[in-house]
Amino acid sequence: MGITIQEASRRSGLSAHTLRYYERIGLIHEVERDPSGHRAYTESDLAWLDFLTRLRSTGMPIADMCRYAELRRRGPGTTAERRRILEAHRERVRTRIARLTEDLGILDYKIDFYATTEAR
Q1: pLDDT above 70 covers what percent of the chain?
Q2: Contact 69/27 with Cβ under 8 angstroms?
Q3: According to the model, what pLDDT value does residue 30 have?
Q4: Which of these, 54, 56, 52, lies nearest to 44 by C-alpha position?
Q5: pTM for the structure as a whole
Q6: Cα–Cα–Cα angle for 6, 8, 10, nearest 5°?
Q7: Is there a smaller number of Cβ atoms within 10 Å at the N or the C end of the chain?
Q8: Coiled-coil intervals in this record (predicted)?
Q9: 10 Å Cβ neighbour count for 89?
Q10: What are the backbone angles phi and psi of residue 27, rounded to the nearest 5°?
């Protein structure tokens, strides 16, 4: 059938607590259960968890992720709205990257300044 929550946790890098939380708030559908009632994750579940992890690591708010997940569950008729959500998020990520690049330049400048000062 599927893999256990412990194995899904190991493979996804998310804690079992986070996996249960994601299920509870609707980020992931209700996970299949094995005959003894334990969660049984599929490869498809793991691929979705990977995508969710990338959304989180790029700063997408949980509320936006839940909205996206709900639209995904509704099916192909929601692709345009899902695309708009991802495009808006992409723009926020690009803005953040630009700011971080600027900040990195300042750090590099200061490090070079101190290295030059110390060399005297």
Answers
A1: 100
A2: yes
A3: 82
A4: 52
A5: 0.85
A6: 70
A7: C
A8: none
A9: 18
A10: -70, -35
